[in-house]
Amino acid sequence: MTKAVFVTNINEIKHLKVTCKSCGYAMQLPINSPFSGNVQVCPVCNAKYSLEDIKKFVNSIKALRETLRANENLILEIETEEKE
Predict the structure, then answer these.
(1) Cα separations (Å) of 53 from 25, 49, 58, 59?
(2) 43: part of which helix (H) or strand (E)?
(3) What is the pTM of this model?
(4) CA gap 16, 24 in Å, rounded
(5) What digits encode the pLDDT tens for the residues 51-64?
């Protein structure tokens, strides 16, 4: 069986897609722009959720990028497989 593997360099990540589990509303959070990590409300169904952990993840991506800029001998890529 053949599986498709997708490789993304960490510097190619432009945004994260966050989807509300209650209604399916999706939003894109840009990596390079600041955003609030406080409790949010879905604009469609008013479900409450927190973006604090996602904000920490975005900050981690930024920190990894800085580390990679400082060390020219490293490349960081994320591999994912096609969903079945």
Answers:
(1) 19, 11, 9, 10
(2) none
(3) 0.68
(4) 15
(5) 888 888 888 988 88
